[in-house]
Amino acid sequence: MQILLANPRGFCAGVDRAISIVENALAIYGAPIYVRHEVVHNRYVVDSLRERGAIFIEQISEVPDGAILIFSAHGVSQAVRNEAKSRDLTVFDATCPLVTKVHMEVARASRRGEESILIGHAGHPEVEGTMGQYSNPEGGMYLVESPDDVWKLTVKN
């Protein structure tokens, strides 16, 4: 069997955009720049940004007042967005536009009271961000991680 690798290979446009946002923030504002979650799943890139002054955090509470915060390409929940707004932070949103599109669809379903099903892995930043767009107690947002989850799923509409 012959395996061919396409060249050049690289990141998707959303990840390229997120990396550029962090690099530009470091160039314009200097270190430190706080980034919620690692901006991309790539150790080389993350280590390089860390060496230049990016500080990767998990909780907004880790960011000092008045600091610069960047949301990673994976996006964040509305609760995280609201927490960042309530603090004296300068926020740059590096969420991938395609992820933002999914967030908007989930928020729209929430407003309509429609149920939404997301296939993904609990705890992954993109899943947390997407699940966090749904706020309607009359509807429902369900995470499916396995075929067993599908069999256990009960939806209203």
Automatic annotation (TrEMBL):
Its EC number is 1.17.7.4. GO terms for biological process: dimethylallyl diphosphate biosynthetic process; isopentenyl diphosphate biosynthetic process, methylerythritol 4-phosphate pathway. Keywords: 4Fe-4S, Iron, Iron-sulfur, Isoprene biosynthesis, Metal-binding, Oxidoreductase. GO terms for cellular component: cytoplasm. InterPro entries: LytB/IspH. Pfam families: LYTB (PF02401). Pathway: Isoprenoid biosynthesis; dimethylallyl diphosphate biosynthesis; dimethylallyl diphosphate from (2E)-4-hydroxy-3-methylbutenyl diphosphate: step 1/1; Isoprenoid biosynthesis; isopentenyl diphosphate biosynthesis via DXP pathway; isopentenyl diphosphate from 1-deoxy-D-xylulose 5-phosphate: step 6/6. It catalyses: dimethylallyl diphosphate + 2 oxidized [2Fe-2S]-[ferredoxin] + H2O = (2E)-4-hydroxy-3-methylbut-2-enyl diphosphate + 2 reduced [2Fe-2S]-[ferredoxin] + 2 H(+); isopentenyl diphosphate + 2 oxidized [2Fe-2S]-[ferredoxin] + H2O = (2E)-4-hydroxy-3-methylbut-2-enyl diphosphate + 2 reduced [2Fe-2S]-[ferredoxin] + 2 H(+). One of its GO terms (molecular function) is metal ion binding. Its cofactor is [4Fe-4S] cluster. This is 4-hydroxy-3-methylbut-2-enyl diphosphate reductase. It comes from Escherichia coli.
